[in-house]
TrEMBL record:
Family: Belongs to the Glu/Leu/Phe/Val dehydrogenases family.
Encoding gene per record: vdh
Top enzyme category: oxidoreductase
Pathway: Amino-acid degradation; L-valine degradation
Species assigned in the record: Streptomyces fuscichromogenes
Entry-linked SMART domains: ELFV_dehydrog
Superkingdom field: Bacteria
GO annotations of cellular component type: cytoplasm
Protein name stated in the entry: Valine dehydrogenase
Keyword Glycoprotein listed: no
UniProt-listed Enzyme Commission number(s): 1.4.1.23
Swiss-Prot/TrEMBL catalytic activity: L-valine + NAD(+) + H2O = 3-methyl-2-oxobutanoate + NH4(+) + NADH + H(+)
Subcellular location: Cytoplasm
Catalytic residues (UniProt): K88
């Protein structure tokens, strides 16, 4: 156990447990901070991943989410061609009620205590302004505002990457990358989903949306009256004539309940960990539904924050995010060649890159 300011940082797991290199529990009594930082792999470089602020029902649930998200970041960063491993942090609490400057500063001290093994950024429940506060205590912070040396909102390029993944899916399935005239259902129109709506409408796609936050739906509907609105996600996945389904909220969207009734031919969205459990990818394939692996198509944001560490250049990042189109096509081709679902093909490619890096580094 290591003292960090007024708090404690306790290592929970090591690399022989769950495949993660390190998982630590952070607690600061003065600010009320309770957080978990998970480092899955540093084979390709320092672990990079955002900080999620969420009211988990238990510490065990928070640890499980951090482990799952950190592993996903390893694969995402590998497929994005970044020299970063995977990590993730979760702060336990309601961001609207529990988030304070003191808590974020305490969290920054914990991240700093890891000495650069983990680089943080925004995620669900955290924003650019929050990273500006964290950065006051930790230089390994990305997703900061331009005024504070950062790149700003990473959701812009996340949405752009998902859009490129959709175009690649259309090319693979229909022989044409154009989305004009296609009907796309977006579940979650917050940070990323609202930007994705703009890309799709600009190309001439038909868009149907839903969100658990009614104000987010109203914002889009007022701005774009042509956008359709579904009552909820259960209704959205069953919309008649849906071509593409884009889960852009929390994970687990593709489940034993949703896959059998899904009307779309393609799933391509921004949410992390969309597959509710192993085997769902086969269920999708058995139904003839093309799945664009989430951690591949939603990598635009991490491409942006990684670039921030080297002096951010938006045009350079956008060009890298545009390559998600080619990466997604390559995964579909590998899946066809190996006779496996695209999710498995993406995993194989990412695992090979991590293995090669670890072997070259003598790990």
């Amino acid at each position: 156990m290591t003292d960090v300011s007024t708090g404690v940082l306790h290592t929970l797991f090591h690399s022989d447990q769950g495949g993660h290199e390190q998982v630590v529990l952070c607690q600061d009594r003065e600010s009320g901070l309770r957080a978990v930082i998970a480092i899955h792999s540093t084979a390709l470089g320092p672990a990079l991943g955002g900080t999620r602020f969420y009211p988990y029902a238990s510490e065990e649930e928070a640890v499980a989410d951090a482990l799952n998200l950190a592993r996903g970041m390893s694969y995402k960063n590998a497929m994005a061609g970044l020299d970063h491993g995977g990590g993730k942090a979760v702060i336990i609490g309601d961001p609207d009620r529990d988030k304070t400057e003191e808590l974020l500063l305490a969290y920054g001290r914990f991240v700093a205590s890891l000495g650069g093994r983990y680089v943080t950024a925004c995620d669900v429940g955290t924003y650019v302004a929050d990273m500006d506060v964290v950065a006051r205590e930790c230089r390994w912070t990305t997703g900061r505002s331009p005024e504070n040396g950062g790149a700003g909102d990473s959701s812009v390029l996340t949405a752009y990457g998902v859009y490129q993944g959709m175009r690649a899916s259309a090319q693979h399935l229909w022989g044409d990358p154009s989305l004009r005239g296609r009907t796309v259902g977006i579940a979650g129109v917050g940070k990323v989903g609202r930007h994705l709506v703009e890309h799709l409408l600009e190309e001439g796609a038909e868009v149907v949306i839903t969100d658990v936050r009614q104000e987010a739906v109203w914002h889009i509907a007022d701005r774009h009256p042509s956008v359709g609105v579904a009552a909820d996600t259960d209704a959205l996945v069953q919309v008649e004539g849906l071509d593409i389904y884009a889960p852009c909220a929390l994970g687990g969207a593709l489940s034993d309940a949703s896959v059998p009734v899904l009307t779309a031919q393609v799933v391509c969205g921004a949410a992390n960990n969309q597959l509710a459990h192993p085997g769902v990818e086969k269920d999708l394939a058995d139904r003839g539904i093309l799945y664009a692996p989430d951690y591949v198509v939603n990598a635009g944001g991490v491409i942006q924050v990684a670039d921030e560490l080297h002096g951010f250049d938006f045009d350079r990042c956008r060009a890298k995010a545009a390559k998600i189109f080619d990466t997604t096509l390559a995964i579909f081709a590998r899946a066809k060649e190996d006779g496996i679902p695209p999710a498995a093909a993406a995993d194989r490619i990412a695992e090979q890159r991590m293995h090669d890096a670890a072997t070259a580094g003598g790990r």
